[in-house]
Amino acid sequence: MIIVMKSSASEQDIETVIQDVEARGLKAHPIRGTERTVIAAVGEERIAGLNSLESCPGVDEVMSILAPYKLASREVQPEQSVVRAGSLTVGNGNIGVIAGPCSVESEEQLVSAAHAVKKAGASALRGGAFKPRTSPYSFQGMKEEGLKLLAEARDQTGLAIVTEVVSPGDAELVSEYADVLQIGARNMQNYRLLEAVGRSPRAVLLKRGPSATIDEWLLAAEYILDGGNPNVMLCERGIRTFETHTRFTLPLATVAYVQERTHLPVVIDPSHGTGHTALVPSMSRAAIAAGADGLIIEVHPDPGKALSDGYQSLNFEQFEETMAGCRKIASALDCTLGAE
Amino acid sequence: MIIVMKSSASEQDIETVIQDVEARGLKAHPIRGTERTVIAAVGEERIAGLNSLESCPGVDEVMSILAPYKLASREVQPEQSVVRAGSLTVGNGNIGVIAGPCSVESEEQLVSAAHAVKKAGASALRGGAFKPRTSPYSFQGMKEEGLKLLAEARDQTGLAIVTEVVSPGDAELVSEYADVLQIGARNMQNYRLLEAVGRSPRAVLLKRGPSATIDEWLLAAEYILDGGNPNVMLCERGIRTFETHTRFTLPLATVAYVQERTHLPVVIDPSHGTGHTALVPSMSRAAIAAGADGLIIEVHPDPGKALSDGYQSLNFEQFEETMAGCRKIASALDCTLGAE
Amino acid sequence: MIIVMKSSASEQDIETVIQDVEARGLKAHPIRGTERTVIAAVGEERIAGLNSLESCPGVDEVMSILAPYKLASREVQPEQSVVRAGSLTVGNGNIGVIAGPCSVESEEQLVSAAHAVKKAGASALRGGAFKPRTSPYSFQGMKEEGLKLLAEARDQTGLAIVTEVVSPGDAELVSEYADVLQIGARNMQNYRLLEAVGRSPRAVLLKRGPSATIDEWLLAAEYILDGGNPNVMLCERGIRTFETHTRFTLPLATVAYVQERTHLPVVIDPSHGTGHTALVPSMSRAAIAAGADGLIIEVHPDPGKALSDGYQSLNFEQFEETMAGCRKIASALDCTLGAE
Amino acid sequence: MIIVMKSSASEQDIETVIQDVEARGLKAHPIRGTERTVIAAVGEERIAGLNSLESCPGVDEVMSILAPYKLASREVQPEQSVVRAGSLTVGNGNIGVIAGPCSVESEEQLVSAAHAVKKAGASALRGGAFKPRTSPYSFQGMKEEGLKLLAEARDQTGLAIVTEVVSPGDAELVSEYADVLQIGARNMQNYRLLEAVGRSPRAVLLKRGPSATIDEWLLAAEYILDGGNPNVMLCERGIRTFETHTRFTLPLATVAYVQERTHLPVVIDPSHGTGHTALVPSMSRAAIAAGADGLIIEVHPDPGKALSDGYQSLNFEQFEETMAGCRKIASALDCTLGAE
Description:
4 copies of one chain form a homotetramer.
Chain A: E1 2-5, H1 11-23, E2 27-32, E3 37-42, E4 59-63, E5 83-85, E6 88-90, E7 94-100, H2 107-119, E8 124-126, H3 144-157, E9 160-164, H4 171-177, E10 180-183, H5 191-198, E11 203-207, H6 214-226, E12 232-236, H7 253-261, E13 266-268, H8 270-274, H9 280-289, E14 294-298, H10 316-332, E15 336-337
Parallel strand pairs in A: 7-8, 7-14, 7-15, 8-9, 9-10, 10-11, 11-12, 12-13, 13-14
Antiparallel strand pairs in A: 1-3, 1-4, 2-3, 5-6
C-alpha cells in the first residue's frame, strides 16, 4: 500500500499515518520527496478498512500494490486450470464452444438447436430456463420445465448443459440438471448467489458485469473458489461504454491480461459482446486469435422469432460458417476447437 | 416501434417485416424515403421478442418509441409520489436526509452516530447489517445482530431505519426491523430480490446500478411496483465512467430528467457518487439545487477507523457543516430539509 | 514515481531498474515487501520517457505521484486567480455569466440576444463566428463578418465578447475583436492552437475535452500559461459516458476537485453538459451550488430555428427564469451573479 | 428523420412541427399511435439545424435515420477502396503493416528500426517528427530534421513513410517528405487540419478520437474526401472507457461494423489500443482475424529508453514474433500480410 501525502501535510499528519499503519501490523517506510512524502506500508494489505486512511488529515491518496485476490491468482497456482464438465473441456489449447438459444422456448426449438450445434462442432449446449429480464413484462423463462428439456437435449446429443442460475435458492435445483452453472453479468456481484454456487459440485461460468473492473471480477471468482468450488471459468461478455453501435464493447485485450494474472480459463461471448448477429462471426474468430479458451454463442432456429436476444443470435447456417472460420484460426494456432 | 430498413433491402424484405409486425397485432405504416424505407409499427410495442426483428433480412435497426415501463411513469400517475416511513418524508418539497455509517460496527458507533445525525437535522438513520462486499476477505456485516442495534438506535432517537437487503431469503427478516429496505447498486438487476421487496410492507430505496441506463433503472422499479409495493424511492449514486478522480461520476441531470418521466421521488447519494469525503459537501448542496427529493450521506464517528467506506464518510462536524450549507440552498428554493 | 515490480522479478531486474532510475538523476528507494518489491524514485519525475520503464523486464506498473502540471497548480500559486475581461469578472465569489447564441447567424439575431442576456443579468456575450462542425455539410459560421457583428453587439451593450478560435492562424484576427478566446472541447489538445492563444493578450476559456482526464486538461492549460498568458479559465462542459439521455454527462464534482488543485477559475457549461433545453435551468443552479466560478449558457431568440444547437438553447424568457433561480442560490452562498 | 412527440403534445404542437418540417422542404408523415404521435420527415435530412426542432413545444426527441456522411458511404461507392502509397498497399486482402518508433529520436534509432521492421515484413515505416504531447514539458519531436531522417530511412529501405501532421500550416511541408499523412486521435476533429490534408496529394491515415462516435469519425473522413483527397484510411486506436488495465479499450467489432458502412479501409493500432507491450502481439493477431485491412505498431530498438510510448513499444525480436503470429492468421484467411 502506498499512501501519498499532500504537499501541505504536516509532520504530525505524517506521524499519525505511520502510527496508524503500524498499529494495523504493517511496516511503514516513509519516503520524503522534494514536493511530497509517500509512505509505503509493507505487509498484508488486504485488511478491513485500510483504505479508510484516505480520510485522515494530510492524506491525498491511498494506492494498492497487491492484487486483492489470492486463490484466483497465478501466484498461488502457476499452471493454467482446465475445466471439464461432461463433453466440455476448456483450457490448455482446448477451445470449448458453448452454443444454443438464449432461452429455452419449447422442446422442438431446443432439441433442433442441440442437434444443429452439435453437428457444427459445439462442445456444450446453452439455454436459459431461469431468465433475468430487464422488464417484468418480458418472457421470464420456462423454469424447471426448461431444465427438464435441457436434460432431454443432453440425453439425445451427449452435449453438456450450461444454464443460468439467478437466485441462491435455485442453485441446488439447477445443479441437479446442469453440468455448468452460469452466473449472468447482472449477478456478478450477487454475493449470496456466488456463495451458493461455491457449494455446488458443478462447474461455474462467471460472466463479467458490464461495468466491473478486472479486480472486481476476479474477486467474484474468489468468492466461488473460497466456497470450495475450483471449477470456475471467466466469461468476458462486453463492457458498457459510450459506443452505441454495439450493445456492449467487447475488449479482447482482457484475454491476455487476465491470463497473465489468473489460472482460470477465459471464455468470450461475442453475442452479448456485440449485440448484433452480423458482428458475431468476425469477433468469434478474433477471440480465438486473441487466445480465448472458449466461446459462448447464441444460436436459434429462427432468430427473427426468438422470444429473447434474436437480434444477436445466429441461425444454424450462420453458426456453421462461424465455426468453419474459427476452425481455421484455431488450427493456425495449434488449438483444438469444440468437439473435434 | 420504428424499423429502419437497409437501403439495400428488397421489396420482399419489406413485405416480410410488415407481415411479421401485423402478425404480432401491431399496425404497420411503411414510409418510403428517397434512400431508405422505415416502417412504423403502431400498437403495444412491449411485446416479447419484437426487437428480434433486427435479425431479419434487410433490417438495419429497430428503435423503440414508447417508454418500456408503465407503473413508474408520469403517464399513469401524473402527480409526484411522496414516500413516508416513520420520521422520513421524501417528495413534494420535503427533502429527506438519510445519514449514518456505511456498516453497523458496534452499539457505541451506531448509537453515537444516530444521535449526532439527528442533532444535525437528519430525518432517518442508515447503517448496513448485511454488507455486499467486493472481496470475500472484507468485513461482511453484523447481520441480524446489526439489525437489532439499528432497532435500538431507532428506539433511542425516533429516526426511521434504512438498511440494505441483499438476498430474497432475508427480505422478511429485514422487514421486521427496518423502515426502509435498500436495494444496493450491485443488486439493481437482482430480479428475485426485487420481487421479494415488492411483497414487503416496507418502503424501498432502489439504487441505480453503476452502468444501468435510466430505462433499466425504472424497469427495476417497475418490478417492485408490479409486485404490489408502491413506496419506491429512486437513488442515483453515480455511474462508472473513464473519470478516475472520483470513484463514480454523479450525473445530477438525472434528477430533472427522471422527475419528468416518473412520479417516484429521487434521492442523491453524494458519498458513493464521489467517493471522497472532501467532495461530499459541495455535491450535497448541488443535489438540492438540482431539485433532488432527498440525500443519503455516510457519516461515521471516526472515518479513518471505519471498517468500510471511511474514505467517503463525513465525521460529525463535517456532517453538521454540510447540513448547514444544504439548509441555505433548500431555503432559497422554499423546500424543507430533513427533520425541520 | 513508484515502480511496482512483478512478484516474479529477479534481483537482476530490480537492480537494472534502480540503475536506470539513478542514471536519470532520481534517487531510488527499493522497498521489499513479502510478495513484491516496489521502488520509489524520488526527484523530478516530469522527465521525458520515465514511464517507458514499464517495458523493462520484471516491471509491472509505473505510478506517478506528482501532478504533472506546475504553473496551473495551487502549489505554485496558492491564492485563486480572478480573470477579468471587460465587463466579465470570474473568480473569488464573482460568478461570471456568459450567454448568447451558439452561432452568430445575423445582426438581428445577435443584437437582440445581446440586449436580452444583458437585461437578464449576464456579464458577457458568447457567439461563434468560426464554428468547428461535426459535418462538412453543416453551417460553418460567418467567420470575420461574425466577429464584426460581435464587436457591434459589444458597442451597443458593453458586454465583453467570448468567441471561439479554431486554428492557430486565426488567433491574431480573433484577438482583435474578442475579449475572451474560447478553445472548444474538440481542440483541447490542439497544441499549436494552445501555443497561439498563449501568445495572445486576451483571456482564454479552455473547454475540457469530452474524454480528457483532469490532468490532461490542466496540462492543456499549462501550455497556455507556459506561453505567457496567465488569464485562463477552465470550462467543464461534460464528458462522454454510456449515458444517452443527456448528450454528455456533466460531472459537477469536477468543480471542488479542480479548485483544490489549481488556482484557475472553473466555469460550467450546462448547455453542452446536458444537451437539452429542459435540463439547463436545474443544472445551472446546481453548478452554482457546487461552487462554480462562472456559467456559459446558450441563448437564442428562437431555438427551434437555430442553425446549430437549438435543442440545448434557452429562449429569452427561459434564460430570465434561469437567472432568477441562479440568483437565489448565489445569494444564499454570498456570491455575486453576473453583472449585479 | 423521426420526430417523437410527447404524449402530452397538443394537436397544435403536432401541426406546428409538420409545418416546420414541410417549410424546410421535407415531406411530413404523422403516425398517430395509441400513446404518442411520431412524425416521419422524408427527404434530405442533412439540413442545418433540423435537430433544433427538439426545442419546440411538445417534441420529445428527434432521431436521425440516414447516415450523416455520403462520400465515405458504401451507398455512394459499393466496392472497397484500396489505398496505395509507395511500398504500402491497404485493402482487398492486402493487410498493410506500418511499424516503427513513436518518435524519431536520432538517425541511428530510426534507421536501425527501419531495417528491422522491413526485415520482419512491414510494408511501411512510422515515426513522429511533429509530436502532439500531453505535457508542454515532454519531448516535442525533431520537427523538420525528423522528416529528413524519415526520408533518409525511406531511401535506405524503400519503405513508405507514415508521419503525423499536427497543424494546418505544416501540411505542405510534411507532404514533401511523407507518403502518408497521419491525423492523430487528438486532432480528429481539428477541421482546419482535415481541410488542409484534404488538399494534399498524399494518402491520409485518420485516427479515431478516443471518444468519437463512428458517425463523427466518418464525418471527419468526409471532410478530407470532400476536400478532394480520396486516399483515406481509417485507424481505430481505442476508445476511452472505465477500464484502466489498458490505456484505451480497443473495440475490434469496429472493423466489421465500419466495413459494412464505408468503402474506406480500416487499420488497427494495437499499441495505443492497449498501451502495454505485453498485449500487443495477441491483439495484432485478433485484429487480423477480425478482418482489419492493416496494422500500425510501435517498434523501438530499446523501448525502456524511448523518449515516448516505450511502455507500449515492441523491441525488434518481439516485433518479429508478432509478425510470425499474424502471418499464420492472415494465411488462414487467405490474406497477404505486409510486404510478402
